[in-house]
Amino acid sequence: MTESTLCPVMFFSGKGGVGKTTLAAATAVHLARSGSRVLILSTDPAHNLSDVLGVPLGAEPRAVEANLEAMEVDASAMFEGLVAEGQGGAIGSMLKLVSDTPGVDEFGAIEVLLAVIERADHDAVVVDTAPTGHTLRLLMVPDLLDGWFGTLLKMRQGIARAGRLLRRLIPGAAPADGAQLEAGLLGGQQRIKVLRDQLTDPKRTQIFLVSIPEAMSVLETSRTLKMLQEHGMPAGAVVVNQIQPETDHCDHCQRRRQLHLAELENLRQRVGDVPLREVECMPRAIAGADALAEVGRLLWGDREQR
Predict the structure, then answer these.
(1) What does the CA dihedral 184, 188, 191, 197 come to, rounded to 10 degrees?
(2) How many CA atoms lie within 13 A of 148 on its CB side?
(3) Which of 20, 71, 121, 152 is the most buried (most CB within 10 A)?
């Protein structure tokens, strides 16, 4: 596997309630109807993607319409299945402990993400993430795993020596295959390195930060953007959602629009050269592929935005 064989990835991140899942799904539908083979993958335990698309989703890709598949990662369910396979023994107990560990969702999500982009069955993978903190942890997992693999490789000789001692102490003990262990660790390390390289390559990965034109959301988006830049993560654009539309018959709505425009300008100053996309508040709930396609056209149509 080389980096050039991996599928491009588009992450959507933002606070809860900013419309991140809707915009991710709208992007996926827009790309699919433009002729690309697209998989949209949700790593959000809330599983809002099923509601937005209007179809039940699970751990395997499901066809939504032509060129578009969707799935939802459930890391807890993944580990529960592994615990059941352990049949309550030591391995099962260890896996149960892992499943209760904070951050297990990110590890499960990164494994599923790596598997789908390695298969390269799609022209693009759109990832609808859980709220911002989850996204940042998810993007840091490859660095963490790379460090773990490095540590384990350094420990390999000690593990092999322990295996030789075990065979002397316990006649008939299974031989420890140090070469096989090393090959497995090196393979895992290389796999993670390729993913890490992709996640920092703006030609292969883009992260879209979804915000709303309100002070707290603008501040969080600014902080997140700074953190991404510090870690070399490529921000594709900042998307400002739920902007109050222009009106001439509602004083309250017009005042709200002025507040939104002020925060929009504040955010524009903060993001610098990162592209800024704008989406006005819709008069109805967005659900189903046709409604999402319209949002996708508004978001990614030909009109220039800054």
Answers:
(1) -140
(2) 9
(3) 20
Q: Which CATH number covers residue 135?
A: 3.40.50.300
Angle between helices 104-119 and 132-169 (to 10 degrees): 90
| Domain assignment of residue 101, given as a range | 7-139+206-300
Report CA-CA distances (Å) from 241 to 40, 96, 180, 213.
20, 40, 51, 7
Non-local (6+) Cβ contacts of 303 within 8 A are none
State the total domains in the chain: 1
∠ CA(260), CA(230), CA(28), 5° rounding? 55
Backbone phi, then psi, for 124, in 5-degree steps?
A: -160, 150
DSSP conformational letter for 3:
G
Do residues 72 and 59 lie in contact, with contact meaning Cβ atoms separated by under 8 Å? yes
Is 172 part of a structural domain of the chain? no
Q: For tokens 């603008």, name the residue.
A: 218
Whole-prediction pTM = 0.78
Task: Assess contact for 38 and 74: CB atoms under 8 A.
Answer: no
In the prediction, which pLDDT does 134 show? 60
Distance CA(17)–CA(131), nearest Å, equals: 9
For the CA atoms of 108, 109, 113, 115, the dihedral, rounded to the nearest 10 degrees, stands at 10
Q: Does 64 map to a domain?
A: yes
* Token pair belonging to 103: 């951050």
Decide if 153 is inside a domain: no
